Amino acid sequence: VQLVESGGGLVQPGGSLRLSCAASGFPFSRYDMSWYRQAPGKERELVAVLMRTSVGGSKNYVDSVKGRFTVSRDDDLNTVYLQMNSLKPEDTAVYYCHAHAFGSWGQGTQVTVSS
After folding, report:
1. Which pLDDT tens digit goes with each residue over 53-74?
2. Which of 25, 93, 108, 114 is paired with 17 by a 20 to 30 Å CA distance?
3. Alpha carbons 92 and 75: distance in angstroms, whole number
């Protein structure tokens, strides 16, 4: 199982970024996927969960990102996305995608929100 995140960077407050996570080594469409983040000195935090399409593809978010972040997936490309809008300095963290069924993590991608 391999997960490779990309799309992080430096953005001003109020800006947007789209993170991608390319998955391989397992039948992606059959599994739920998640995004987590970890800020310096803090524990890793669950940001969003996206259920597999076969059970409806429902989405759940931590309260702090509701209305600003959107998780989606493309099962043909084996990729999960995190669209982040109206970014705030407190969104600064390393973002990771996670395949819970396998306990697998990507290497993370750094998101820095600063003016």
Report:
1. 899 999 999 999 999 999 999 9
2. 25
3. 28
